[in-house]
């Protein structure tokens, strides 16, 4: 299955792109996707403990099972002031 990934804020700089796609086996989780993305975009690894993840418009945990064609957004914690 293929999922689309959107990188937001300075994650675009870390990944070197605003979006990507990744082919995963059926039953893959967000955790599985993150392992692949960290290998593909190693600069993202430094943010692994503070990465916010949404599928569609809802936040999801790393054990969420992905489905064909879903869009996953990765972004840093929101800061205000």
- Would you identify the CATH architecture? Roll
CATH superfamily: Beta-grasp domain
* Shape, principal axes of CA atoms: globular
Q: For the largest beta sheet, what order do the strands appear in spatially? A: 2-1-5-3-4
What summary fits the major beta sheet?
5 strands, mixed
Q: Please, how many domains?
A: 1
Mean pLDDT: 95
| SSE string | EHEHEEE
How many strands in all? 5
* Poorly predicted regions: none
Report the total helices.
Answer: 2
Beta-sheet strand percentage?
A: 25-35%
Fraction of residues in H or I helices: 10-25%
Alpha carbon gap, first and last residue = 40 Å
CATH C-level class is Alpha Beta
- Structural class by sheet pairing and helices: alpha+beta
Q: Supply Rg.
A: 12 Å
CATH topology grouping:
Ubiquitin-like (UB roll)
Give the topology.
Layout lengths: L1 E6 L3 H5 L3 E5 L6 H11 L11 E4 L2 E2 L11 E5 L6
Parallel strand pairs: 1-5
Antiparallel strand pairs: 1-2, 3-4, 3-5
Give a structural overview.
The chain has 81 residues and is an alpha+beta fold. It has one domain (2-75): Beta-grasp domain (Ubiquitin-like (UB roll), Roll). The chain is built from 2 helices and 5 strands, in the order E-H-E-H-E-E-E. Strands 2-1-5-3-4 form a 5-stranded mixed sheet. The longest helix has 11 residues, at 30-40. It starts with a strand and ends in a 6-residue tail after the last strand. The mean pLDDT is 95.
Key attributes of the depicted protein:
81 residues; alpha+beta; Ubiquitin-like (UB roll); five-stranded mixed sheet; 27% strand; globular
């Amino acid at each position: 299955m293929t999922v689309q990934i959107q990188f937001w804020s300075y994650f675009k700089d870390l990944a070197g792109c605003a979006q990507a796609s990744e082919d995963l086996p059926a039953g893959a989780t967000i955790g599985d996707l993150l392992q692949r993305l960290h290998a593909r975009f190693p600069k993202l690894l430094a943010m692994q403990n503070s990465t916010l993840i949404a599928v569609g418009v809802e936040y999801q945990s790393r054990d969420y099972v992905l489905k064909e064609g879903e869009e996953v957004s990765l972004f840093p914690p929101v800061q205000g002031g």
